[in-house]
């Protein structure tokens, strides 16, 4: 607004050069010509000073203080206005009503012309119009003739009306300036969003390239292992040790592929808001001890040494989400810092504990440190087994969800230090009992035999899963559609009793049918609320929300056989318990 004030004052400065010439010209033959020439010289001097002030402002406006420059402008404007107020007092004009009218015309032109020029600062305009019109009003109010009362009233109206229009013009100018800055901000925001979209597109391209490579690797290994198994079978009976060895390799390859896909699933679950934080007091010592027990062997196999300093303290966090953060940080250290020394410890901070994962690996270049927490980011010039670049992105998002700050300190060639700061718990509480592990089924559970309705429109998965369930001893009624499953069950009922304890359905079936609908239709066919279990490969956030809202248990592909077996047992047990409670 101050810049606008200086820029729009050019018209007023021009008027200060032209109108004094007209005034002197009108009275050139009167005895007042001499004083008017001195008055004109003063007006020109002040106007030249105002022009010089504007030139200095334009030169130093980038470092100018707006209020100081507005005050300088106001002082010069009010000095100039006082000189014009001298004209309004008619002290420089001959006596007579006609000369008072001439002074009124001059002042009206100057005050009206200054409205657009000085309205960027209303206080400056109001001061100017009072200094110009005030002497004119006082002079006319002191005259006895009625005509001067008309001039005085005109002077008052001139001040009031022009001040009003100055205020209106000020708001118009202010609105225009605000719109200009809003447009600039909008342009900046659009450029930022464009850059984000460009970065996201580049990240997607890098991700597709990484996914293509990293998912092809285990698929290629599976093909080779399958060929090896076929070659061994062609020689005759397969020895138990050979089959076990190939099975272990298959499971290792599947675990690697599952780890890659789990990263995508975790991101989708975060996007869908299906990973709520349930913070509670928990012992940090047990969490660190569990990390040591789980990762010690992995570190040894990679040629690294893992040292965990167990700290006895109670912290306030979600045990599952915090464990996932530390798992990712420790896995990241093992992957990118092979054959190094890794230390996991904790340092006390005011009201909090800073859990640190340090390694003596290659470190991270400062230019890449800002990128490591971005999705699909992979460090350059790092020799490691590649992932999809989601581990640290998941760490950042989980930490934001929990409100735990995550920091990175790293020096190339001297290792890295990832840390997460967790608040201390106010009150220590006993830890909740641990959940049963996937491999922790009791012998009675392993011997359980159920009737299972299986719906999957993929022939290969339908056959493989049906064979696996049958191998476990379950009776399977399988089909690609609900109708096919019902037909298989009808055929089994002809031969004898065909109880159904569980419905296992893929989520996305043919003809736009969902697993939720299939389970509902099969329950209607059976006329009972049989427990349902959905298997899906969908990771889209909206699909995950829909699955979560269904109330059914969901397993995400690929599924390890022990986890599937445990889920079947727990789902059937939960359904039986719920049914018994309902009957009671």
From TrEMBL:
Annotated EC: 2.7.13.3
Statement: the UniProt record of this protein carries the keyword Kinase: yes
Keyword vocabulary terms for this entry: Kinase, Membrane, Phosphoprotein, Transferase, Transmembrane, Transmembrane helix
Enzymatic reactions: ATP + protein L-histidine = ADP + protein N-phospho-L-histidine
InterPro entries assigned: CheY-like_superfamily (IPR011006), HATPase_C_sf (IPR036890), HATPase_dom (IPR003594), His_kinase_dom (IPR005467), HisK_dim/P_dom (IPR003661), HisK_dim/P_sf (IPR036097), Sig_transdc_His_kin-like_C (IPR004358), Sig_transdc_resp-reg_receiver (IPR001789)
CDD domains noted in UniProt: HATPase, HisKA, REC
Pfam families: HATPase_c, HisKA, Response_reg
Residue list for modification 4-aspartylphosphate: 506
Transmembrane segments: 12-30, 36-57, 69-87, 99-118, 148-165
Domain Histidine kinase: 210-426
Membrane is among the record's keywords: yes
SUPFAM superfamilies assigned to the protein according to its UniProt record, in alphabetical order: ATPase domain of HSP90 chaperone/DNA topoisomerase II/histidine kinase (SSF55874), CheY-like (SSF52172), Homodimeric domain of signal transducing histidine kinase (SSF47384)
Domain Response regulatory: 451-572
Protein name: histidine kinase
